[in-house]
Amino acid sequence: MMDGLLHGFAVLSTWQNLSLCLLGAVLGTVVGVLPGLGPATTIALLLPITLKLDPTGAIILLAGIYYGVAYGGTLTSVLMRIPGEASSVVTCLDGYEMARKGRAGAALGIAAIGSFFAGTVGILGVMLLSPPLAELVIAFGPWEYAALMLAGLSLIAFFAASGLAKAALMALLGLLLGAVGIDPIAGTPRFTFGIPELVDGINITPLALGLFGLSELLFLALVPAGRSEILRPPSSLLGFLPSREEARRSVAPVLRGTGLGFLVGLLPGGGAVLASFLSYAVEKRLARRPQEFGRGAVEGVAGPEAANNAGTAGAFIPLLTLGIPANAVTALLLGALLIHGVQPGPMILERQPEIYWGVIASMYLGNVLLLVLNLPLVGLFVRALEIPRRFMAAAILSICVIGVYSTNLASFDVLLAVGFGLLGFVLRRGGFDLGPLVLAYVLGPTFERSLRQGLLISDGDLTALLERPIALGFIAAATLTLLAAMLLRNRARVAD
User: Fold this and answer.
1) Cα gap 250→100, rounded to integer Å
2) What's phi and psi for 190, nearest 5 deg?
3) In the chain, is it the N or the C terminus that has fewer CB atoms within a 10 Å radius of its CB?
4) Phi-psi map region of 34: left, alpha, beta (phi>0 left; psi -120 to 50 alpha)
5) Would you call 353 exposed, middle or buried from its count of C-beta atoms within 10 A (0-12, 13-18, 19+)?
6) Residues whose CB is less than 8 angstroms from the CB of residue 278 and which lie 6 or more positions away in sequence, other chains included
7) pLDDT for residue 228 is more than 60
8) Residue 427 or 186, more confident
9) At residue 481, does pLDDT exceed 80?
């Protein structure tokens, strides 16, 4: 393992990869600061640009944005009570109240230190768990991969905020979009409607840029411009240090949030958002003075901030070793790997170790950069909120159009992105979550190909599954996931 990590730092030591790691961390922070933009939109915007980079550099940049967002979202949550990103929603409750009491620096300092610790432990967990998991998956055949993809698709039931029925419709649409192009077994075109440009399928670049980038522009146009009060951050580094009592009360929540967040990141539908909410609930339940929560309890900042960073790191294990994304952002990262010719899964450690270990090394360095940069430059990052919306919208539109066209130098892709932009806007206005669509679009082709290969090998005999205990285990996991999701939703409905 140490040899692999040293190899990763050797890969990272080039000027290009070091610059991309720094750029990803800074961009992630800025994206976290800007409410509404989000990591999914930003990664979608940068997908065309990364096509000009080598695969390792591209993933280092995009991964830096993903784990950097949690840091940036904390700034606006504490100083403005506006979550720059969904995983920072919980921080608004007590972080802003601490700031109103003159403890903004302490809240930001505790969040940064807790996030750094949790991120470091999470990365260590990725290093320890990924290799043995990859060795297990190497023995998989078509039936196992088909069942694994089915289990991945079942995650839709967990991270579908719009409801199970709407999530199922989005998943069906994603499967249909993923099926456009050449049949993987017969080799004949399907669902192309006589359009030659669709023979190679729908590229993820116009799909992602349309659904997330262009639809976001339409939402920006609808939201009236306004200014919120920004509480002043400390002017010196000493102002970010918590008091001895605040530090003492933060230790246990950070440790609990780290462990809980990492485990949640491994689970179906897990990740930073769910981890932060669960951590807040745990800390409030265990607190000696639960009445302080919502009024400036330091535990309500320390635990969730550690949990969302550990959850982000934990989500990389199923992504890299199984090729299973747990949310829309990791689905886009999976799409980025695929368009660069990288197939995430157990063989990535054998065939492309420079990518795996390079990303791990960049996460270590990025975690340090985020700690070093965020506190001294907090004032500069908050200034990003003063960018006029018309300039931001023009920049997003330019990046979208140029990026989509430059991918294949095809005007058809631009029209496709515009169509997906309108579709994404309509779906979001209707309360549909785009995450299940992207997840199904990414996993659907692999599921279909593996299932049909298994059927060909067994001459169409589905009972061959009975001889594959691992595949049966994944099918059972998918069934339990769906049942658990329905049970939780029914309980929530009864509670309401």
Assistant:
1) 19
2) -150, 150
3) C
4) beta
5) middle
6) 260, 264, 307
7) no
8) 427
9) no
Phi, psi of 189 (to 5 degrees): -70, 150
How many C-beta atoms surround the C-beta of residue 495 within 10 A? Answer: 6
pLDDT (tens digit per residue) in 357-415: 888 888 888 888 888 877 777 666 666 656 666 776 777 777 677 767 766 777 888 89
CA 164 to mean position of chain CA atoms: 21
Q: What is the pTM of this model?
A: 0.69
Q: Three-class SS string for the chain? A: CHHHHHHHHHHHCCHHHHHHHHHHHHHHHHHHHCCCCHHHHHHHHHHHHHCCCCHHHHHHHHHHHHHHHHHHHHHHHHHHCCCCCHHHHHHHHHHHHHHHCCCHHHHHHHHHHHHHHHHHHHHHHHHHHHHHHHHHHCCCCHHHHHHHHHHHHHCHHHHCCCCHHHHHHHHHHHHHHHCCEECCCCCCEECCCCCHHHCCCCCHHHHHHHHHHHHHHHHHHHCCCCCCCCCCCCCCHHHHCCCHHHHHHHHHHHHHHHHHHHHHHHCCCCCHHHHHHHHHHHHHHHCCCHHHCCCCCCHHHHHHHHHHHHHHHHCHHHHHHHCCCCCHHHHHHHHHHHHCCCCCCCCHHHHCHHHHHHHHHHHHHHHHHHHHHHCCCHHHHHHHHHCCHHHHHHHHHHHHHHHHHHHHCCHHHHHHHHHHHHHHHHHHHCCCCCHHHHHHHHHHHHHHHHHHHHHHHCCCCHHHHHHCHHHHHHHHHHHHHHHHHHHHHHHHHHHC
Torsions phi, psi for 69 (to 5 deg): -60, -40
Give phi and psi for 182, each to the nearest 5.
-85, 130
Which is more confidently placed, 10 or 135? Answer: 10
333: its two tokens: 């990262």
Give the least confident one: 267-271, 342-346, 384-388. Answer: 267-271
Cβ atoms < 10 Å from Cβ of 231:
15
What mean pLDDT comes out for the span 262-278?
A: 69
CA–CA dist 436, 155 (Å, integer): 9
CA distance 86 to 467: 43
